[in-house]
Amino acid sequence: MKIVIAPDSFKESLTALEVAQAIETGFKRIFPEAEYICVPMADGGEGSVQSLIDATQGSQLEVQVTAPLGDTVTGFLGISGDKKTAFIEMAAASGLHLVPPEARNPLKTTSFGTGELIKKALDLGVEKIILGIGGSATNDGGVGMLQALGASFKDHNQRELGFGGEQLAYLAYVELGGLDPRLATVEIEVACDVSNPLCGKLGATAIFGPQKGATAEMLPILDKALAHFAEVVKTHYQLDIAHHAGAGAAGGMGAGLLLLPNVKLKAGVEIILQAVKLAEKLNHADLVITGEGRMDSQSIAGKTPIGVAKLAKQRQQRVIAIVGSLREDYDVVYQHGIDAVFPIIRQVSSLEDTLKQGRENLISTAENIARLMHLSRMA
C-alpha cells in the first residue's frame, strides 16, 4: 500500500514536515509495511520556504533586513538544492508577527525588507524566485519593496516618500529607471492566495486592513492612498494595477509587484504543487492524506488541502484531511475532493497547551484512522 502524506503546517505548532512525519508515525503503528511518501506543502504563506527547501533538498540563508517599523530584523530565504531558485516569504521580512500587537499600524509599516530579500536572491545569481506574499503587516502597495530594489516614489516637491501606507497619498512621481537591472533576467512567480482587487469593498484595506491593526478611521485613508498610487502609476506607465486579480494581496503587494519585469501572480498552492512535483508522487497511491491547522469554509479558496485533493481526484484517489480544528462551516470541503475530515484535539485545554500537544495528538489521530481502515479490511 502506498500512502502519500501532503499537509500544510499547523501554524504556531508544527511545520508541514513535522505534521507529515507525525501522521506517518501514527499510521506505521498499524501499517508498518506500507510505502510512505511525505511531501511538506504550503500555499504561499508562512511555511512555504521551509516546504520548498524540504522538497528540493535546499538550504536556508539568514539575512539582516528592514522590519515593518523600520528597525532591523533577521530574515531568511531559501535556496533550492540546484542553486537555481530562491524561495522567499514576505512574512520573513515584513510579517505581522514582527510587529507587537500594540504597535501594529499600517499607516506606518513598510515592505522594504521584502525588497531586500529579493535583492539578496539576485546577489546569489538565481534564475527564478518564488515569492509568497501572505502574512504581511503592511498596506503600502509594495512601494517599500520597490524602493529597496531601486525604484523611486516622490512627492510634488521631489522628495522621496517615507515608509507606510499613508505616504502614498502624497505620491506625484514614479520612476522605475533605477530598478536593479538583474530583475530583467529573473523569473518571479508570486504565490498569492487571494484574488482581491487593490481597492474598494473587496480590496486590500477593507478586507485585510483590520487584521494588520487598521482602525475604522484608518481604513478610508489607506484605501484612498492605494487608489491614488494606482492612478499615478496608470498616468506614468499606462498600467492598470488596481483591477488585476490578486492586486490586493498583502496590503497591495500584488499590485506593486506588477511594476517589475517577468512577474506572474498565481494561486499559491498551484505554485507549490508544481515545485514539489506532487502530481508525480501521487502516481499509484492508494491513499492521500492532507491537512492544515484549521479547516473552515475559507479552505476552499486556494488553501493547501483542496489543492492536494483536486490533484488526487484526477486519479480517483481517496483523500483524508487531518486538521488541528474545525469551524462549523467546514463541510463545504466535501464538495471539493475531501472524502473525510478528522480533527486531532483530544481534550479541552488552553490554546498554548493544545499547540504544544500537536505532535502527540496528530500521531494518535493518525493511528485511530489507520485502525479504522484495518477494521474495514477485515470486514
TrEMBL record:
<dbReference type="InterPro" id="IPR004381">
    <property type="entry name" value="Glycerate_kinase"/>
</dbReference>
<dbReference type="InterPro" id="IPR018193">
    <property type="entry name" value="Glyc_kinase_flavodox-like_fold"/>
</dbReference>
<dbReference type="GO" id="GO:0008887">
    <property type="term" value="F:glycerate kinase activity"/>
</dbReference>
<dbReference type="Pfam" id="PF02595">
    <property type="entry name" value="Gly_kinase"/>
</dbReference>
<keyword id="KW-0418">Kinase</keyword>
<keyword id="KW-0808">Transferase</keyword>
<protein>
    <submittedName>
        <fullName>Glycerate kinase</fullName>
    </submittedName>
</protein>
<dbReference type="GO" id="GO:0031388">
    <property type="term" value="P:organic acid phosphorylation"/>
</dbReference>
<comment type="similarity">
    <text>Belongs to the glycerate kinase type-1 family.</text>
</comment>
<dbReference type="InterPro" id="IPR018197">
    <property type="entry name" value="Glycerate_kinase_RE-like"/>
</dbReference>
<dbReference type="InterPro" id="IPR036129">
    <property type="entry name" value="Glycerate_kinase_sf"/>
</dbReference>
